[in-house]
Predict the structure of Extracellular solute-binding protein family 1.
Amino acid sequence: MKTGRTVALGLSVIMAASVMAGCGGSGSTTDQKGEAKAEASAEPVVLHWWGSFAENMGPEQVCEAFNKIDPNLQVEYTRYVNDDAGNTKLDMTLMSDTSIDVFFSMNDVLLKKRIDSGYTYPLDELFDSAGFKLDEDYEDTISQKEINGHYYSLPAKRITETILYNQQMFDEAGVPYPSKDWTYDEFLDTARKLTKGEGNDKVYGWFFPGYDAGQPALRMLNSKLGVDWMYAPDGKSAFIDTEDVKDITEKYLQRVSEGIEPSYVDVTTQKMAPASMLLTGKAAMIFGDWVVRDVKDTANYPHDFKVGFAPMPRLSADQEHNYTTSYTDDLSVNSKSEHPQEAMKFIKWYIEEGMDYVAPYARIPACKKYDADKVASLIFGDQQELFDMESAKDVYLAGSDVSIRKNMTAAAEINTILTEEFDKVFAGAQSVEDTLKIAQKRADEKIAQEQ
């Protein structure tokens, strides 16, 4: 009996010890899990940012600078090419998974399609958590980016519809430099006086790159009517078969006929580019604010003249607005992102500070916290002697009236229609009148299909 009780007591002690050991073991496991969880939580959040410009044109420096701020919040950059294949790749990735946190849209049509497809997070719902205030970073014109009460993107870059010109050619021809409010008639007279030579010695007074959608003829309409000129004010029909469009198209054909400007066919077949046309002395004036970075590239484009800046001309002296400014490089947060608040923090920093690293590549910051002197220093650096800095600050960096795309029903289809129909005008295969009637009818049909 005694032995049995001793054994029983011993078993009880062992069992109790086992239970206690079990409790102690359980506590130890919990501590280990807690430590593991703490270690896991110490892992940095890594944001995946997609954009279309080359890594060595700012994104590398952006990532390096941002990643020094907070070791727990990092960013990595992936480039997609801004063409049909590249944008399709971006859209498919946004549709299928969470691997993108922040992304650029490089034009309003693609941005609107991504908003309509549900790929974009409403950024205004993240403003407070990021300490972001819209009115501290942008002028009142940013309100044009609001869609259905929300901001689905914030632009990093401001565009100016800018003409770059060879000051030496103006001086040699005795032609005054363009004024900030010059008209189309003054522009045409200037281009005529600067045009000279034949064949390989030909110098054009004006050059516009080989864009599609009829832009060599139509781009100047932006200054008078804004970037939505192809839509009626209510957006429910096209606005192509109009006197304004007819007039600007005939003006283009006149310039080509006089030899002031190369034809669209010549530009595209001979692969003429604005940088080479300006910087090798083949054109006195060219369109394209991005050519600023080529002017700075004296290794590939050696030249000994200064480049000045002029706005696109007013089509008439009494037109109410001169829309020469818009926005691009729109940053959005993927609606599927697992880190939307952190993504908004990155967007805020990029807009307010990160543009320091991309501005040198001719990207004017949209944020109003960047003053003109700082932007001039960032963009032109120690190469200011290559430019007329007075017109650079008054025109290129200043801009004027802002216009943003709002009507985008069937926008991609309308661009295709304009390309197809205006190609016929440019080739001399269709009259201006027929082109406008056909384009209007086709565009109206596409708009009606989407309403």
